[in-house]
Amino acid sequence: MRKTKILPWNEEWIKLYSHEEELLKEILKDEIVNIFHIGSTSVSAIGYAKPIIDILVVVKNIRKVDLYNEELRKLGYEPKGENGISGRRYFPKGKENRTHHLHIFQSGNENIKTHLNFKEYLIKHPEEAKSYGDIKIELAKKFPENHYKYQAEKQKFVNELVKRAKKWAVKRNFY
Fold it and tell me: Domain limits at 144?
């Protein structure tokens, strides 16, 4: 069972993302519409994160992504298909010691807006971001040996943040 590991935010995560972005651009080339660093490692105001770089890639055609599974495997990514989210291709990297989560969606998929609005909301609301970081620390202490329980409890807090981020984005006409 994967353990829950939370670390103080680290600028190195930006470099790790940038490195991976270049590798992914080499593989997916013309299929990429855009690529983003998302998740807690992309928002310093959160203060804490699992040391896993979340990457969101927007592509022209989601079905074509499956053609790149072998090349992505060579980088250490494990193809998981939709993995519970319709219209996504998901690739974790690092087996039990995860280092990256790659989320790929076709341009126009609603999940793209959700991820980007969530990130922007936390950047613009550092007090909310800090609360999110505090919850992570609290839950990691409570469930250090049970990553799945940690995730389930954290998701409740995240769902509320997502709702607030969506309302905020609609008011601002963001994405």
Answer: 7-172
How far is it, in rounded angstroms, from Cα 146 to Cα 88? 26
Q: Using only C-alpha atoms, what is the Rg of the chain?
A: 16
Contact (Cβ atoms closer than 8 angstroms) between residue 91 and residue 79: yes
**Could you report the per-residue pLDDT of 118-131, keeping only the tens digit for each?**
999 999 999 999 99
- C-alpha–C-alpha distance, residues 166 and 29, integer Å: 31
Cα 91–138–95 angle (5° rounding)?
A: 20
18-45: b (≥16 Cβ within 10 Å) or e: eebbeebeeebeebbeebbbbbbbbbbb
Tens-digit pLDDT profile for residues 6-47:
999 999 999 999 999 999 999 999 999 999 999 999 999 999
Give how far Cα 70 sits from Cα of 48, 158, 171, Å: 33, 33, 42
**2 is a domain residue:** no
Q: Domain holding 80: CATH number?
A: 3.30.460.10
Which distant-in-sequence residues (6+ apart) come within 8 Å of 21 by Cβ?
A: 35, 37, 55
